[in-house]
Amino acid sequence: MTSVTDTPQPRATRMADAPAFPRMVAANGISIHVDQVGQGPDVLLIGGAGDTVESWQLQLDGLAARYRLTAFDNRGAGRTAMPGGAVTVETMADDAAGVLRALGIPSAHVAGFSGGSIIAQELALRHPDMVRSLVLQSTWPVMDPYLRSWGLFVRWLVDVAPSERAFLEGFFLDIYTARAHNDGTVDQFVEEALAFPHKQAPTDLQAFLDAFLDHDTSERLPRIAAPALVLAGGRDSTSRPELCRAVAELIPDARFEVMEEEAHQPFQEVPHEWNARVDAFWREVEARG
C-alpha cells in the first residue's frame, strides 16, 4: 500500500545485452512481476504488506551504480496475482528463491522491511546458500501481543475505512514519522498510492497479514550463518526497537543499529542515510570475500 512512485527506473543503468525489465518470471508455480536495475553484486529487495517494486524506488535509483538490484511484487500485491490456497511466509520465501533461480542468480545480498524482513529471515533459513547477507529493517522474531493487535487492527481497518484515502491516512500514522506527516511527505505518498494502477485487493492484504500473525522464527534464527544487519526506527510504534534487537541477539554476530529519529520505513523517508548504511555493510561483506 506504500508505493513511493510509479516512475520507471533509469534504463541507462541496465546492461545493453540484459533481458528487458520489468517483466514477469515463472517462479514457485506462479508468475511474479520483477524489475532489475544496475550492475555489480546482486541484491534482492523484499517488500512488506501490499508493497510492490515501487516501494524500493529510492534504492533502485540510489544504489544502481554499485549493485545489480532485483525487486519483485509479492504474491497478491501489484502485478503478481494471488493464487488460491493459504498464504504462508514459507511459501513467500520460496517465491523469493524462485525469483533468484529464474534470473540465474545463485546468491544475493537480501534486504527486507516489515513483513518482507520476515520473508527474508525465512529465505535465509530455507535457502541459506542463496543469501549472501541480510538487511532486516523493522523486523521481529515473533509478534508480541502489541504488534499482533496492531496487525489485527490493520486487518479490519481495510474493511471499515470509509474510503481508500481514509485507510491510507490511518494506516500511515504508524508507518511514517510525525515529521513526514507534517511536512507533506505523507500526503505525497497517499496521492501516489491512490494513483497507482495495480491496487491490492483488501482480501489479499488480509491474507498477507494473516501469514505473519503467528509466525515464529525465534528458535531457528540462531541457524542463520549469513552476515546480518538489523535496523530499527527509534520512533517505530509497531516493530519497535526491542523487537528488532531480539532478532539481532538471536542471529549469530548480527549487527544492530537504531535510527533514533525514524519510524517504520526510513528507507523512504531518509533514503540517502539508509542507502549509505546498507552500502557500507554490503561493502564490508564483499571485502571479506
TrEMBL record:
Gene Ontology molecular function: triacylglycerol lipase activity
Superkingdom, natural source: Bacteria
Record InterPro entries: AB_hydrolase (IPR050471), AB_hydrolase_1 (IPR000073), AB_hydrolase_fold (IPR029058)
Coiled coil segments of this chain: none
GO biological process: glycerolipid catabolic process
Transmembrane segments: none
Residues in AB hydrolase-1 domain copies: 43-266
Gene3D superfamilies: alpha/beta hydrolase
PANTHER family (UniProt xref): AB HYDROLASE-1 DOMAIN-CONTAINING PROTEIN, HYDROLASE, ALPHA/BETA FOLD FAMILY PROTEIN
Protein name: Pimeloyl-ACP methyl ester carboxylesterase
Organism for this UniProt entry: Conexibacter arvalis
Lineage: Bacteria, Bacillati, Actinomycetota, Thermoleophilia, Solirubrobacterales
